[in-house]
Amino acid sequence: MDNQKKGFTLLEIIVSLIIIFFVVAGMAGIFVSSSNYTYHYKCRGTAVSLAKYCLDILSKDVRQDKWNPATAADGNCLTSGFNCPTVFTTNPTMPIGLDENYTATYAISNLAGTNLKKAVVVINWTEL
Fold first, then answer.
1. Which of 41, 59, 63, 120 lies 20 to 30 A from 23 at CA?
2. Where in the sequence is the domain holding 121, given as residue range(s)?
3. Spacing of C-alpha 57 from chain mean position
4. What gap in Å lies between CA 23 and CA 34, rounded to an integer?
């Protein structure tokens, strides 16, 4: 008689389960890291949009007025009184629907040797 039975041994089943476990664990790690990556770059995209929003506010103020060097010693003051400190920092009103964890500040300063102004926008946020 032939005593060969068809099927898997217990050792083969345990080894295959261990291999499957490591494959699934690796895929779960990739999923978590890609989710974090996607969230981080979504936050960066929102920050870029907020920086553009801040610069749009500032450019509208500049177009409606002109720089008044007599108002401030450094000439960084609009005739309306906006931006009279040498370095002006503000947190503009956030657009509707934007998370509260973003803060925007901008500063205006002179560029040495020119009559140009330099606007620096800084966006800070906390990632959950």
1. 41
2. 10-125
3. 19
4. 17
